């Protein structure tokens, strides 16, 4: 009789991911219920997601557009699309760091794979993204953009974001379960990342200014910028800068590898740490 694989084995780690994926009806239902529960008894229900996004995007687009002297017809869709992507990325980062802590009861008393909670989180953030996509569609109708076949690149770009949201949740979720100081640190860093990411300011505009062009290139060190650009560029019909894809792809490969190693080594300890 062959020996059972130990708790720190690749077969257990990949088995966890596979079992969680097979339970799609469960985490799909739970993710949708999370959204309904959040807006329970409100008049608009989940539509508040899009309303909130529209108000914030319009206010910030008009304000920063006036400050930077940008054309509102191009700047407002730019800001709204950036916020749309940022909400997804930020949601995966913040909720990912607490994904196992928040599900302490289920992890302790329900014999389910850990990946189920990761799939549930990413699915919930994807639903938020789809809701907010309505704002982008409305702005594209009001302020037509030069869309082309490159719009199709938005599909693989979003799938790349989903993969990164998953590995970030696995990695930070496990680490934060062991060290509870991690979630507030990540929350503080996410606020800093927002201002370092070209969402309410345009990177290309700064590059054209000789006074700040060299310092503006520091923004390239921000990994979130590349993930925002690979999705925003096709969604606005902008010229595709392939360097963002190369960098995002490299980050994805390294991140998935790190998350798998962490899952392999510490998956069995999460139930004790929570």
The Rg value, from CA coordinates, equals: 20 Å
Oligomeric state, counting identical vs distinct chains:
single chain
Which class of secondary structure composition applies to the elements?
A: mainly alpha
State the low-pLDDT regions, or none.
none
InterPro entries: ABC2_TM
Keywords: Cell membrane, Membrane, Transmembrane, Transmembrane helix, Transport
Subcellular location: Cell membrane
Family: Belongs to the ABC-2 integral membrane protein family.
Walk me through this protein's architecture.
α2 packs across α7 and α4 crosses α12. With 274 residues, the protein is mostly helical. The mean pLDDT is 88. It has 14 helices and no strands.
Key terms:
transport; ABC transporter permease; mainly alpha; 274 residues; 14 helices; transmembrane; membrane; transmembrane helix
Write the layout of secondary structure elements.
Elements: H1 10-22, H2 24-38, H3 47-68, H4 72-96, H5 99-102, H6 104-109, H7 115-142, H8 154-178, H9 182-196, H10 203-207, H11 213-216, H12 223-236, H13 242-266, H14 270-273
Helix pairs in contact: 1-7, 2-7, 3-4, 3-7, 4-7, 4-8, 4-9, 4-12, 7-8, 8-12, 8-13, 12-13
Pfam families: ABC2_membrane
Transmembrane segments: 47-69, 75-101, 121-143, 149-170, 182-201, 244-263
Keywords: Cell membrane, Membrane, Transmembrane, Transmembrane helix, Transport
């Amino acid at each position: 009789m062959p020996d059972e694989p130990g708790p720190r084995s690749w077969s257990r780690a990949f088995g966890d991911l596979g079992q969680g994926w097979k339970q799609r009806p469960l985490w799909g239902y739970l993710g949708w219920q999370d959204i309904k529960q959040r807006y329970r008894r409100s008049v608009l229900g989940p539509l508040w997601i899009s309303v909130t996004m529209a108000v914030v995007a319009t206010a910030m687009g008009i304000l920063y557009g006036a400050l930077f002297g940008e054309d509102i017809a191009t700047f407002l869709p730019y800001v709204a699309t950036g916020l749309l992507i940022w909400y997804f990325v930020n949601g995966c980062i913040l909720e990912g760091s607490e994904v196992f802590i928040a599900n302490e009861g289920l992890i302790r008393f329900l014999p389910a794979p850990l990946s189920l909670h990761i799939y549930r989180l990413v699915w919930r953030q994807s639903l938020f993204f789809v809701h907010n996509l309505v704002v982008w569609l409305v702005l594209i109708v009001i302020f037509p953009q030069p869309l082309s076949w490159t719009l199709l690149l938005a599909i693989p770009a979003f799938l790349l974001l989903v993969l990164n949201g998953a590995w970030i949740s696995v990695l930070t979720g496990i680490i934060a379960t062991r060290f509870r100081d991690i979630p507030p640190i990540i929350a503080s860093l996410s606020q800093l990342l927002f201002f370092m990411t070209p969402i309410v300011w345009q990177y290309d505009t700064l590059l054209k200014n000789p006074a700040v062009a060299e310092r503006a290139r520091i923004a390239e060190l921000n990994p979130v910028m590349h993930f925002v650009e690979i999705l925003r560029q096709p969604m606005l019909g902008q010229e595709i800068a392939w360097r963002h894809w190369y960098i995002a792809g490299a980050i994805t490969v390294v991140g998935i590898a790190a998350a798998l190693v962490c899952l392999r080594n510490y998956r069995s300890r999460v139930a004790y740490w929570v």
